[in-house]
Amino acid sequence: MDTMAQRWTRLKPYAQWFGPNDAKPRPAVVLFHGCGGLRPHVVRYARAAAAMGVRAVVIDSFAPRGWDRAFAVSFVCTGLVFQGHDRTGDVLATLYGLQQDGRVSDVMLAGFSHGGWTIMDLMTDPLDRPGAAKLADPDPALMARVKALFLVYPYIGFPARSNTRGWLYRPQTFAALAAKDHLTPLSHARRVLKRLSGGGVPVETAVFDATHAFDEEDNKGPIMRFSDVATAGSIAAMQGFIARVFKT
User: Fold this and answer.
1) What is the spatial distance between Cα 108 and Cα 246, in angstroms, rounded to a whole number?
2) What gap in Å lies between CA 37 and CA 55, rounded to an integer?
3) Is residue 169 within 8 Å of residue 196, measured between CB atoms?
4) pLDDT tens-digit series, residues 100-114
5) pTM of the predicted model as reported, rounded to 2 decimal places
6) Distance (Å, rounded) from C-alpha 57 to C-alpha 218?
7) Measuring CA to CA, which residue among 136, 151, 229, 133 is closest to residue 193?
8) What pLDDT does 248 receive?
9) How many helices (H) and strands (E) are present in the chain, helices listed first?
10) What average pLDDT is seen over the chain?
11) With contact defined as beta carbons under 8 Å apart, do 44 and 215 qualify?
12) Alpha-carbon distance 144 to 90, whole Å?
């Protein structure tokens, strides 16, 4: 089982940084891709975040593990391996790594689909024992750096833990939801987020007339279809959220 330092050592070579080229501690948006692996739209969001004057860090969970897109679609997207709670260690180890790096102050975690599932699962974990988040030395104190979450069509179906568990950490949260999401129906997402809001999580939402993965340009089918309008709206919502959270 990895320590946080060991996990970050694996992830760090694949992390992409955007934003100011200096060593000053600045707020950062840290982005986690969906089940199909790192795709161009995640970088598009990162560049939009960096345009706000903050840092943006894109984390690739699959390349360090030697997984290509064919593997991801066949095994991760089908839920056979690497479910949300299996990936939470990547998020915590990234928080550890950014703390060691020194260029990041407060953090907004951003997740797309599986990435959103992962981040939401992490919010339910007390991180109070070896083995939590699949790490040998999880440190719950790192969660104090997380000031906000930006979740884009997060997967909240079975077995996502937020279906049955409250959040132990309650950062400001914004969810960009798709009205035609076939993986997490809008009514279900709203129900879960309403319950979390009742438990003290400050939640904002925006609903786009679009499908799941509406921001992936090569999605052209009836179930998942690219929407430039929804993508632009989601990115604008993220930039507005960044401005409010980090007061940029």
Assistant:
1) 9
2) 22
3) no
4) 999 999 999 999 999
5) 0.98
6) 23
7) 151
8) 85
9) 7, 7
10) 98
11) yes
12) 17
